[in-house]
Amino acid sequence: MLVGSLWAVLPTASPAQGEPGRDSPPQVEIRCRLGNNGSLRLDVVDAVDGTPLRLEDPFDPDPEAIPYAFDPLSNSAWSQVIPFALLFAIAPGDTDLLGLTDADRFFALLGTDDAELLQRIGGSLDDPLPGAALRRRLAIRAASQRGFRPALGLLDRIGADAAADPELRRAAQRAAVQLRGGTVPQASVADQLDLGSLLAQSPLDATVFAVIDQHRLPNTSPLAGWVAYLARVSLLNAYSGRNEPFAWAMLRRAWQVDIGSRVMGYELVKRFGNHRVDRTFLAFAPSSEPPGAGWPGLLVHQGEFDVAAVERGLQQYAIDHHRGDDGTLYVSAGDPDGFAFEIAPSRLVLRSGPRQSPRLTAEVADAIARILTAGSAPVVACRNPAWELDEGARRFAPTMATLSVPKTPGGDVVLTSRFENDAAARAVTGVLRGLPRMVQQLIDDEPKLDPMLDLSESLRITTADDLVTITLPWPELDLEAFLTGLGESGLLR
Fold first, then answer.
1. How far apart are CA 313 and CA 296, in angstroms?
2. pTM score, two decimals?
3. Considering only CA atoms, which of 216, 317, 336 is closest in space to residue 268?
4. What are the tens digits of pLDDT across the range 323-341?
5. Which conformational region is residue 330 in: left (phi greater than 0), alpha (psi within -120 to 50 degrees), or beta?
6. Where are the domains of the chain?
7. Measuring CA to CA, how many Å separate 133 from each of 11, 70, 274?
8. How far apart are CA 5 and CA 68, in angstroms?
9. How far is residue 405's CA from residue 377's CA, in Å, rounded to a whole number?
């Protein structure tokens, strides 16, 4: 499986979908290019002669939305990347929205070689399509990801040019520091969250609460990229060799899951501007229904938000919105129990669920605030102490959890969980220490999955009273080989 290739071959087309008169289905490829709107397209073509192949996607009646890797205005596009969208919405880590794009992969998919990348960075590439300035900034990030030192001269000139676009200058300065092996200074960070005010706005039915210091976490897009790659391998393996009417559609959908998650940031910035999140507060009640279908929830980001760019995007795509007296931008999905956004220069608020639902009592809010401020990790979460659980659930549901992840590869990932009492902590510890045996049974006769056993055996689990700590040393493994093996195994079918 070639992760950075421009195409993938999968002989899944039926004769009815191929050219008239063929005796056997053609092999097909997915090829990437920029569409007339500057978005990344995924075209299905004949692998032999490159002829575009027309198909009807039985999963999406909107033919205009099908070809793009990710279209923020298409419900079907969001349905392909929901897990990654939720991850980015809740915990993007220390990056801006554009930083959630895999810049190197973006240009690799377009066949951009080093010479063209230099032209794009220098601004000499003829690119008449919408979003050219954004792609120039993305090219600078790609050079940094590639470790492409020949770009240093251009980056230094751009970084020193007082007349250059401020965002372009900052991108060039940052990339130059990274290419020289330096550490980029931490950007100014938003003030601490006002927990008292946020809890007072939280729905009474919210059961899970969390505070996240994004600036202390790594960029989470590489993790999402690997998970998306696993999803693509699994889908391609499941449908490989099938001669079914929808096989071509599944081929493109498999690539949409992978590539869509990696270019989501670019497509959103192109339409609604760039933004950065420093700190996050989250209160919600998990449900079996899709997000927004009555979920009582509150998500508050503090950071830097380009309100004017969001408003321009909303106007361009005729999305209902209005400005408050203080300049805050309000956007509603129309459903009184659905999503509603509030966007100000230093704050983005997402509410869901009935607007008039009761709020937390002062007593419960105070208890939650004490728990959330007791932890010093980048991620601290707790459950609502008033949440009524049956005895079995109460025993194994943590009352509080914290997560620490190193910002760069190396070091330990540490998860701590506090339980109702010492006995519950010991019971959970016993289950966790049995993981290697469970994994061994799960991966029997799957040698490609041996790293999964190694990971389970490397866990260090300690218990102190009601607190369980799980420490995972930073794994050293060939992720591509491991995920390919996992995707091609029978575990995910």
1. 27
2. 0.86
3. 317
4. 999 999 999 876 767 788 9
5. beta
6. 9-187+220-270, 189-213+275-375, 389-493
7. 38, 19, 13
8. 18
9. 9
